Amino acid sequence: MTQQLKSVVTLDHTEGMRNVPDVRYDRERSVYLRFARDPRDTGYLVQAWGDAFPYDGRGGYQGRLPHAPAVLAGAVQVLRTTWQEHVVEHQHTSLDARERKRTTYPFVDHWDVARNDPCPHWDDIMRRLARAGHTLFRTLFLSGDDGLREIAEHLLRALRRDEHVITVESDDLFVPWGMLYGPPDIPAEVPPGSAWRLDGFWGYRHVVEHGFSRGPYAFNSRIVVPDDTVTVGLNVDEKVDAEYPDTPYVKDVIEFFNDNAHAVVRRCKDDLYDALTSPEFADLITYFGCHGEVSGPGSAGQGEQPYLVLDGERIFGAELMGWLAGGVLPSQPLVFVGACQGGQLSSLFYPSFGRHLLSCGARSLLGPQVDLPRAFASDYTTRLFGQFLQRGAKLGDLVRTLARWYADEHRNPLGLNFSLYRGMDVHLWPDKTS
Q1: 3-class DSSP state of 251
Q2: Residue 301: is it exposed, middle or buried by C-beta count within 10 angstroms (0-12/13-18/19+)?
Q3: Alpha-carbon distance 392 to 223, whole Å?
Q4: Which of 174, 238, 408, 429 has the largest count of CB atoms under 10 Å?
Q5: Out of 139-153, 216-230, 299-313, 322-336, least confident range
Q6: Using CA atoms, how far apart are residues 268 and 371, in angstroms rounded to an integer?
């Protein structure tokens, strides 16, 4: 006689089969590149995998880039300088209604260049940016051994064919990946006078981030929001607005976050110190809206150091390192660097100041590669976070969407100048236990 087994459900994670979770928080990378310092020489070992690199039975893809870090840092700086000179510092002279000469800086004075100050040099500017981005691409992928050239061949073919999700991992090579350019058509060159296309820029066509080697702290792309309240720490210097009252920035940012989140405003160095050293640190978003500079060479052989300015006081990366020594930011915030003149920080800020924030628990960091005009900084902030504060909006997608929108609709390429350090899949997530 067959016996019937009795069973009792004591715990049902499916809520009675009404809600079976099937959510991927972190998408697969179709392009993953790793630049690791080669211990045998001064160059880098480059490894590649993902859908863009088909398995052919010959093992993994890897090659060697022979250039020393200082050489590559110089190549990166050439790209930044091109953007600084031909976008941020670009000026043109036109005649006003009274036939008087009028000189303007279209990308500084307005974020909507197409409507407010149409730039007659748009095509030439973008061609220069494309050529500079492609020159750096060639330096990174075509100036090494045969293995690196094989990686470049597959990479170019894949980037032309589809949109990709790209992570480039390195602990000491910092490149503005979104500003790289790969010609969408063959031949793969951008000579003077040639055509260019927006979808050749990595940051326009693809979702791209800079990653780091595996760290000791757990990573979660979900920023859990307790009590449906997003706490934003605003580390701001209102003197930025006093210097340029016609293009307010900090005031607009404070008003926006006061209206859309729980804003905690910090206006001086002591406020920032108290926050970062407190075990009660609760920022889900940490925002820097201030000046950023790089100091000159110091005494006793000290090199240049990056710093931010709050209420006239300098905050050096070395100080941040001491404040966070041995600790972890308990809320693991998204850090946004909206520093005016922030591009001057880029070569030193991200390897020191930014890298230390990330190693001490910050979930993600987003910041500019060239000086950030105030009008653009204000508009970009409110648009980015206006969408990010909507639950589920992923940071990397928003960065790409805005880069396309500014370029397509407003003839402004500055959206491409933001680099995302880890966290393309970061998004807000309601705390269902609260």
Answers
A1: helix
A2: exposed
A3: 10
A4: 174
A5: 299-313
A6: 22
Which is higher by pLDDT, 77 or 349?
Answer: 77
Which token pair is 269? 């160095």
Whether residue 13 is predicted with pLDDT greater than 60 in this model: the reply is no
Question: Which structure tokens are listed for 148?
Answer: 């690196």
Omega before 69 cis (within 30°)?
Answer: no
Structural domain spans, the chain: 31-90+125-211, 222-430
**Which residues contact residue 356 at a Cβ distance below 8 angstroms, ignoring those fewer than 6 apart?**
317, 320, 321, 324
Instruction: Kindly report the length of the chain.
Output: 434
Q: Which of 216, 214, 172 is nearest to 361 (CA)?
A: 216
Instruction: Classify 421 as helix, strand or coil.
Output: strand
| Residues near 187 by beta carbon (within 8 Å), at least 6 away in sequence | none
Sign, CA dihedral 198-204-208-209, equals: positive
Rounded Cα–Cα distance for residues 409 and 404 (Å) = 8
* CA 431/CA 434 separation, integer angstroms: 6
3-state SS class at 256: helix
In DSSP terms, 62 is beta-bridged to 47
Q: Are 339 and 372 in contact (CB under 8 A)?
A: yes
* DSSP letter (8 states) at residue 199: G
pTM, two decimals, is 0.90
Pick the CATH number of 222-430 from 3.40.50.410, 3.40.50.1460, 3.40.50.300, 3.30.70.240: 3.40.50.1460
Tokens of 127: 């061609």
Residue 117 has which token pair? 């100050």
